[in-house]
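User: Please fill in residues for this 389-position structure.
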C-alpha cells in the first residue's frame, strides 16, 4: 500500500510540475538605441562605459540564461557624419557588421542611418543577416523597401517585432505614414496570428511615445529612441510599457516579462507597472561587469586599418554611390588602389546634374585594357558589379 501511495505522490508531483512550467513563461527583451557611432569606451564623469566587444559578451550571456530572449535596437546607430565622410562610411559598415556578429534579432533605423540611402542600408543589413523592421516607410507606388514586422516563435509563445520612424524625417524617394495608421494594420496582424506580445521599436522620440501610445491598442512594449532621455524604470503609456536605454551604448537595457498561460498578461495594472510581472534593468557596458569579447575587440580595432588611404580614391562618389563603393572595397580594385576615376570618366557636370550618367563606353575600354575579356563578358561583369545598365 505504501508503494502505491508513493507512486501516486510522485506522479502527482510530476504532473503538477509540468503544469506549473506550462502555465508561465518569461520573455527577456534586451535593447539598445542611439548608439550614434560609438565603438569603444565613452568617458563619463564616473567611469568608462560603452563598448561593442563588451556588448557582445553581455548579449551572449543574457541570451544563454534566458529561454525566450530577443535583442533589438531602435535606431541612430551610425551617428553624425563629422568631417571625414569616408570614416563615417566605414563606421556605418562596421556597426552593421557588428550587429550581425552580436546577434541582433531586429533593428529599426533612425534618421541618421539613412545618410547613404535606403539601398545601401538594405544591402548592408541583408549581407550581415540583421533584420530591419520598419512599417511606415513607402515609395510612390506604396511599396515598403523593408519588412514591416517579424514574428519570432518560441516553443509556446509568439512575439511580433515592428518599427516606426518619425513622419517628419526626410528619406529621399520615400514618404513616411503617420504611425497611428500603421498600428491599425499591425494590430490586425497580431490578432490574426494570435501573437502573445507586440514590441514596437519606436524612433519617434520619447515625448511623442508618451503622447501616442495611450491611444494605440494592441501594443505591449515600446523601445524608445531619438532622444537623450533614459529610464531607470519602465514608463506607462496606456497599456504599453515604454523602455529607454542610455545613448552611445553605455547600457544594455533588459526587460523581463512574466507571462501566464492565458492572456491578458496585465503588465500594467491600474496605470502602474505590475511588479509581479515586470522586471527592468540597465546593465552597464563596462569591463568590470563583463570582459570584452576578444574576437569582436580585434575586429573593431583592426577594421579601419584594412581601408587606410582608400578614402581619397572614393569620397567624391560616396554620397550617392555608397552601395557600389562597398562592392569596390570588397573587390580587387581597392586592394590595388584603383579608385573610381581609374576606370570611370567622371565629368564635373555629373556631380551637379544627376541625369548625366558616367561614360560607360570609357569604362568598358578601361576594363578591356587590363582584362582579356570579350566585349560581352565585360558588359556582364559590369552589370554584376552594378556599374552598367
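Assistant: Residues filled in for all 389 positions:
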Amino acid at each position: 500500500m505504501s508503494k502505491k501511495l508513493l507512486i501516486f505522490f510522485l506522479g502527482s508531483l510530476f504532473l503538477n510540475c509540468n503544469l506549473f512550467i506550462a502555465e508561465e513563461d518569461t520573455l527577456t527583451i534586451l535593447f539598445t538605441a542611439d548608439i550614434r557611432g560609438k565603438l569603444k569606451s565613452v568617458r563619463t564623469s564616473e567611469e568608462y562605459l560603452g563598448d561593442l566587444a563588451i556588448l557582445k559578451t553581455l548579449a551572449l550571456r543574457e541570451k544563454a540564461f534566458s529561454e525566450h530572449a530577443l535583442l533589438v535596437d531602435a535606431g541612430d546607430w551610425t551617428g553624425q557624419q563629422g568631417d571625414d565622410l569616408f570614416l563615417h562610411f566605414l563606421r556605418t559598415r562596421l556597426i552593421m557588421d557588428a550587429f550581425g556578429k552580436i546577434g541582433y534579432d531586429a533593428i529599426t533605423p533612425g534618421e541618421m542611418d539613412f545618410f547613404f540611402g535606403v539601398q545601401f542600408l538594405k544591402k548592408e543589413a541583408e549581407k550581415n543577416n540583421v533584420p530591419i523592421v520598419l512599417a511606415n516607410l513607402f515609395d510612390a507606388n506604396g511599396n515598403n523597401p523593408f519588412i514591416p514586422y517579424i514574428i519570432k516563435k518560441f516553443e509556446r509563445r509568439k512575439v511580433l517585432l515592428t518599427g516606426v520612424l518619425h513622419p517628419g524625417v526626410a528619406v529621399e524617394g520615400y514618404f513616411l505614414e503617420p504611425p497611428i495608421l500603421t498600428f491599425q494594420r499591425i494590430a490586425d496582424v497580431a490578432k490574426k496570428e494570435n501573437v502573445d506580445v507586440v514590441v514596437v521599436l519606436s524612433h519617434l522620440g520619447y515625448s511623442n511615445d508618451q503622447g501616442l501610445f495611450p491611444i494605440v491598442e494592441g501594443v505591449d512594449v515600446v523601445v524608445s529612441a531619438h532622444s537623450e532621455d533614459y529610464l531607470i524604470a519602465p514608463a506607462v503609456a496606456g497599456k504599453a510599457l515604454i523602455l529607454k536605454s542610455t545613448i552611445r551604448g553605455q547600457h544594455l537595457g533588459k526587460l523581463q516579462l512574466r507571462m501566464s498561460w492565458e492572456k491578458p498578461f496585465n503588465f500594467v495594472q491600474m496605470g502602474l507597472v505590475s511588479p509581479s510581472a515586470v522586471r527592468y534593468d540597465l546593465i552597464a557596458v563596462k569591463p568590470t561587469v563583463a570582459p570584452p569579447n576578444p574576437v569582436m575587440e580585434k575586429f573593431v580595432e583592426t577594421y579601419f586599418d584594412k581601408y587606410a588611404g582608400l578614402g581619397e580614391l572614393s569620397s567624391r562618389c560616396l554620397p550617392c554611390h555608397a552601395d557600389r563603393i562597398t562592392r569596390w572595397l570588397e573587390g580587387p580594385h581597392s586592394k590595388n588602389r584603383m579608385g573610381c576615376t581609374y576606370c570611370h570618366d567622371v565629368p564635373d557636370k555629373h556631380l551637379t546634374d544627376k541625369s548625366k550618367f558616367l561614360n560607360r563606353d570609357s569604362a568598358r575600354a578601361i576594363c578591356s585594357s587590363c582584362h582579356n575579356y570579350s566585349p560581352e563578358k565585360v558588359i556582364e561583369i559590369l552589370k554584376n558589379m552594378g556599374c552598367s545598365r
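For context: The radius of gyration is 25 Å.
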